[in-house]
Design goal:
By secondary structure, the protein is of the alpha/beta class. About 35% of the residues lie in helices and about 25% in strands. The strands form two sheets. The protein has a six-stranded mixed sheet with strand order 6-7-8-3-9-10, with helices on both faces. A four-stranded antiparallel sheet has the order 2-1-4-5, covered by helices on one side. Bound molecules: adenosine-5'-diphosphate (2 copies). The site of one adenosine-5'-diphosphate has 8 residues, from strand 6. One adenosine-5'-diphosphate binds next to strand 6.
Amino acid sequence: MASIEMRNIVKQYGDGYPAVNDVSLDIADGEFMILVGPSGCGKSTLLRMIVGLEDITSGDMLIGGKRVNDLAPRDRNLSMVFQNYALYPHMTVYENIAFPLRLAKMPDDEVRRRVTEASDVLELKDHLERKPANLSGGQRQRVAMGRAIVRQAEAFLFDEPLSNLDAKLRGQMRTEISRLQRRLGITTVYVTHDQTEAMTLGDRVCVLRKGKIQQVASPRELYEQP
Ligand code: ADP
Ligand code: ADP
């Protein structure tokens, strides 16, 4: 687990208006931070700069107190949970969770230990031999998070993970993600343009507008303001 600190982060694509314009934000160890704002305000760009999928034009990005501006994604030890969960349909739940460890050529017994531990936490123990097609949406989400957990990532990053789901499943998933994040206590940054998600999921909400921070507040403070 780690804090994420942004100091005067700027992202300039070409010579237009900066997509992210002097953003400074501290996300505490274990905190659940929501990034919200209208389309085009810079949410995804900011998230991608945290992960390292986008270069930072100026400013400093610190993860666990360490400057990561020049670190490749694989060296940042973060985990991005994708919208479509990116599960492999031909693999079992076990193999889906184990996948990043196999890539890293981890010994079998260590893989087994970590997958067992993760599937305990995620209540997936009875489903390890199933294929993704035979799981509920909530179970699939948990498999995706399992893959992040076994890598022992410092933080979870979500980019609008629920935007393709229908309203009912979206509600279930909100509950699921919130429960898991609290159980694991892992630093989380969650991008959405959905007001309900913004107001129910996070410890704090960062409202972006045209590449700048408009406000950072708890959901309660946002709700109670005139
Ligand atoms: P959001 O996630 O809030 O919808 P984005 O971070 O995707 O916003 O985009 C912020 C701004 O940067 C937008 O004006 C968008 O058009 C621009 N932008 C995003 N990605 C690129 C890119 N690869 N090249 C040029 N401009 C981009
Ligand atoms: P390879 O270099 O083996 O083809 P990638 O470049 O896709 O693999 O990823 C290498 C490592 O970079 C991953 O194991 C992961 O740690 C990190 N990484 C890549 N993309 C992401 C992402 N979207 N979120 C988090 N980490 C990522």
